Amino acid sequence: MAGDMDRSLGLLLNLTPLLTSAFIWPARIHASVHFPVEVAESGIPPVYWCTAHYVEMLLKAEVPLVHSVFKMSGFTPSQMCLHWLTQCFWNYLDWTEICHYLSTCVLMGPDYQVYMCVSIFKHLQPEILQLTQSQELQVFLKVRRSVTLYTHNIPSNYYNN
């Protein structure tokens, strides 16, 4: 956008009517036409009652060791995902990875939020398993770090296994 206010406003106005915007821009859920009025007025973003639930289910099925580590550590993977998602991964991923995340969610749908969180956990599995012993898992996952996922190198059959 290069600091162009008109282009930025145009982007936001075009993003607003999309269902995805309620997931990646939770502050504007009250104006969403995609949710019942009661849900929109409750102020509870769909990342809490939808994304977090699916992250838990998918992580348990696809990366069971990481799911078990979270269970033993006393906090849930969905808590960590909510932390990342409310910050739009700002303190966690590189700017290019954040742009990939936003573009993917807008183009492919809000379910890719779930896949992004699970892929980060899968990518970090060795470190997560190692940090279980030292009781530093939550600090490790919250501290500013640069996770490079190399999403452009993921084979097309990666999620089919």
For the record, give the distance between the C-alpha atoms at the N and C termini, rounded to a whole number.
38 Å
Q: What is the share of helical residues?
A: 55-70%
How large, in whole angstroms, is the Cα Rg?
17 Å
- Estimated structural class: mainly alpha
Low-confidence stretches: 150-155
Number of strands: 0
Overall pLDDT, averaged? 77
Alpha plus pi helix count: 10
What overall geometry do the principal axes of the alpha carbons give? Answer: globular
Largest sheet: none
Number of domains: 1
- The proportion of strand residues reads under 5%
The ordered string of helix (H) and strand (E) elements is HHHHHHHHHH
Account of the 3D structure:
The protein has 161 residues and is mostly helical. The protein has one domain. It is built from 10 helices and no strands. It is globular, with a radius of gyration of 17 Å. Residues 1-143 form the BROMI C-terminal Rab TBC-like domain.
